[in-house]
Structure formats: C-alpha cells, structure tokens
Design a protein that fits this description.
- The strands form three sheets. Strands 1-2-3-4 form a four-stranded antiparallel β-sheet, with helices on one face.
- It is built from nine helices and nine strands.
- The chain is elongated and about 115 Å long.
- It is an alpha+beta fold and 259 residues long.
- The protein starts with a helix and ends in an 18-residue tail after the last helix.
- It folds into three domains: 86 residues; 40 residues, no CATH class; 80 residues, no CATH class.
- 25% of the residues lie in helices and 20% in strands.
C-alpha cells in the first residue's frame, strides 16, 4: 500500500487515491519530464473520483500546481485519467482582469486616424428628432434649415440628461472647475469676465468657454465660479477688494506725562 493510500482523506476511493504515479505521468505528458514536482494533496470529487495536485517546477508558472483528476468505473480495479490542468495557487502571478477597451481609454488616447465607435444604445445620447443632416438636406426652405442648425437640432442624436449630467460633473471637478488652485487664487470669477463665451442650452446656466489667449484656460470649458489671473477686470477687482484709506482719529487724544 502506498503512502498516498495510507494518508488518503476519509471518503476518497482507495484506488483513485493510490493512482499517484498515473496522475504524475499524465501531468508530465503535458508539462514535460522534470517539470512536475512533489505530490501536494488529494481531494475527493465524488464517488470513485479524486483529484491529485502536484507542484509546478516550471519557471514560467511559479506558485501554480498541476491538477489531475482520476476516476474509477464501477467494479473496475484500476483508475483512469479524467482531466489534467494547470491551476494558480494563492501566490501565483496572474494577468490582470480583462477590462473592455471602452473602459480602458483615457483622455488623450485617441490619436489622428483613430476611430472610437459609439454604442447605438449609449445612455448619454438620445434621438435628435430631426432625422439628421440627410433629412434636413431634403427640406427645400433654406431658412428652416438655418433655424434648425442654429438650435443645435441638425443631428441624429444629441446629449441626454444623463450625458449632460456626466459632462457637468466632469467639468466641475476638472481643471476648469471652482476647486482648481488657479481658481482659488484668482482675483474674480469667470462669470464677471468679458472673455467668457456662454454656452447654449442647459449647460449654459453654469458653464462657458474661455476666449482669452493669455489665460491657461483659453479654449476650454470653465465654470462660472472658476477664475484665473487673466480676468478682464483684474485691476478693478483688485482695487475693490483692497483696503480703504487710513482713518485719522482727530477727536481722541493721548495724555503724555511732563518731565
């Protein structure tokens, strides 16, 4: 009787437990001679079914182990190999979990010639209700097309409320928001700056675009309570916030002692 049989867990078939050499040979057939290490354990998987575990000696699979499942048919006196696989242990080096490309993309990853398909069911978009540019091109009245485009409706899809909310949240917490170091040190907010171009629609209630070439925010979306040192009224704002003239007390007096 082998050691594996003497130390087999309760309930494990004796023939399956004794089939250590059979299991090792099956693992070496896949891994190669010399790459299967010591026998680690045996687990019962069911009636006349057991799994042997062997350490992996491959330098490419440190911390992994070979798992060989053997089975014995009813009334059979020998076991046969059912399955062989390589499994990671608790200290095995594993590849990171798969992340879809749409979730891996970061701002700035898209380069010239790259295409980023938009999901037809993207919750950030809703139908534009005009049929898009092709439908508008069939409209004979030019003035009607101009009005539609001016209202921003000449598109197949437009931003949904969720898309608007996502953009607003991203912009408020971004470099053009009120909590940026640049804004906290500014002499005044963007809402009072002459270089602010107000956006149309719902976002225009809190956001605009900076049009000052001297500002680090030039061409970028900023919140009304954002700000920078290139405020159009920086001198006036500073003068209003500075302290007033010194007050001379001409009524009270101090008594001085005479020597």
């Amino acid at each position: 009787m082998t050691v594996a049989t003497r130390t087999r867990p309760p309930g494990v078939d004796a023939v399956c437990a004794a089939a250590v050499d059979l299991a090792r040979a099956a693992a070496e057939e896949i891994a190669g001679i010399g790459l299967v290490g010591e026998h680690l354990s045996i687990d019962g998987e069911g009636e006349r079914l057991a799994t042997h575990a062997f350490a992996s000696l491959s330098p490419a699979y440190v911390g992994w182990h070979w798992s060989v499942t053997v089975a014995r048919a009813n009334r059979a006196k020998v076991a046969t190999v059912d399955e062989v696989c390589l499994l990671p242990g608790s200290g095995a080096l594993l590849a990171p979990a798969w992340v879809p490309y749409a979730d891996r993309l970061q701002p700035g990853d898209l380069g010239p010639g790259d295409l980023l398909p938009t999901d037809p069911d993207d919750v950030r978009l809703v139908p534009g209700y005009t049929g898009g540019y092709e439908a508008l091109s069939r409209v004979e009245a030019d003035d009607l097309r101009e009005v539609v485009f001016e209202r921003g409706l000449g598109r197949v899809r437009v931003l949904s409320l969720l898309g608007l909310d996502d953009a607003a949240d991203r912009w408020v917490n971004g470099p053009g928001g009120p909590h940026a170091p640049l804004a906290e040190a500014a002499p005044g907010p963007c809402v009072s700056c002459g270089f602010l171009v107000v956006m149309p629609g719902l976002l225009g209630q809190a956001f605009g675009v900076c049009a000052n070439e001297s500002s680090p925010s030039d061409g970028r979306v900023v919140t009304f309570d954002h700000g920078c040192g290139a405020h159009s009224e920086a001198v006036t704002v500073l003068s209003l916030s500075s302290s007033g003239p010194h007050v001379l007390d001409e009524v009270g007096y101090d008594e001085f002692g005479h020597g």
